[in-house]
Every structure is written in structure tokens, then in C-alpha cells.
Amino acid sequence: MATALITGAAARLGRAIAEELHRDHQVVIHYRRSAEAAQTLAANLNARRPGSAATVQSDLGSATDCDNLASAALACFGELSVLVNNASAFYPTPIGEADEQQWDELMGSNLKAPFFLSQALAPALAEQRGCIVNLADIHAEKPMPTHTVYCAAKAGLAMLTKSLARELAPQVRVNGVAPGAILWPEQESEGYNKEQILARIPMQRSGDPSDIARTVRFLAVDAPYITGQIIAVDGGRSLNI
């Protein structure tokens, strides 16, 4: 059975992706601080199919962290076919208030970690003729007010997706999913007013984490001739930003 590593898989979109891929994959659930949530998810999945889920704790701040996570993930089941770079920091960085620590955190989680983790796992993925799916953002193309650093990081991730797709072909496919209004931030900020956003979405509603999870699974399982693409799953919001 194929194995998938999902970063930031203890909650929110990462959890939904892990549950969806678990339908026909063994899953490695990466977490940073959410140990209890990760272990509960693994226990639930193992109750459905014994020995099918494992957890790995790791920071993602450095290339060494990513190398260590890659080694730990491979040790869980002995191989890896799918890497989902989902872990992400998200918060506003208004010009005049942003600092270097915020730059490092937002660039680190959204761009640096996906690069170094993909690099570390490229040989294992090539051996399985596997794939990488990156969680991008519709705001990689259309900037969100006061979120300059986050948007820049996601724009970098979009280009990283395309560059890796070219460099790792034909052994490894690399694609991205760009969520729209799926899960709302815990704190509302400028440029992210829920009512205003919903009013501008052609589908007139927010999406569900399962919409993202099913798209990730499609790219991982049912799209052998798709690479270098980023699919917006946003109810048409990117048409009307």
C-alpha cells in the first residue's frame, strides 16, 4: 500500500487530507506542537485499519529539520509515494509593523520547508514514481491587504511547484491546490472580512475541508498525466477578487 506524508496534519485542512488519503494509503501524520490531536487522529485511523497511520513530530524551521523529518517519515513504513506540503503560518504583516521574525516564520513554513522537504524526499518519491502536492493559495496571484509577506511566500510556493514539476519529471509529479474561503482564520483582520468575502464568491458560500482533501487525492491518485498545475478550489472567488 502506498504511503503519504502530510505536514501539519493534526488539524484543519491537514487532518481532512490525512483522513481522505487514508482511504487507500498509509499515512504519516506530521505535527509540530499538536501532539494530542495528532495521536488521536492516528488512533482513529488505526482503529479503522490497524497499522495504517503513524505520527512524527518535527520543527520545519531549518533544512536539517526537514532532513530529519524525511528520515523519520521514511522509517515509519519503509517507503513514501506522496508528500503533501500543508503546514503553514498565516497572519497579517502590515507595512511599517512587520519584523524579521515574522518574515522568517512565514517564508519558512510556506516556502523554505516545502523546498527542503521536497529535496530530501525526491529520491524516495522517484523510486515510487510518486508525487508532491503543495497547498498554495489563491492570494499567490491576487494580494490580500496587509498580508504582503504571506502572499509573497505563497507566490514563491506556486513557482516552486512549477519548477519542481519540471526538474523532477518524469519520475515525480508536482502539483498544487489553492484553497479559497474554506476555513476562516480565528481572528478577523483587514482584508479578510467574512461577510464581504462571501458576498463576492460566485458560488455564494464557503467551501468545506473535504473539497480540498478530495482535490489533493485526485492529484495524488487519479491524475497521472497532470504535473506543474495549481488548481484553485475557491467557488470562483479568484474570478472576483
TrEMBL record:
GO terms for molecular function: pteridine reductase activity. Keywords: Oxidoreductase. It comes from the Bacteria. The keyword Oxidoreductase applies. It is an enzyme of class 1 (oxidoreductase). PROSITE patterns: ADH_SHORT (PS00061). Belongs to the short-chain dehydrogenases/reductases (SDR) family. This is Pteridine reductase. It comes from Microbulbifer hydrolyticus.
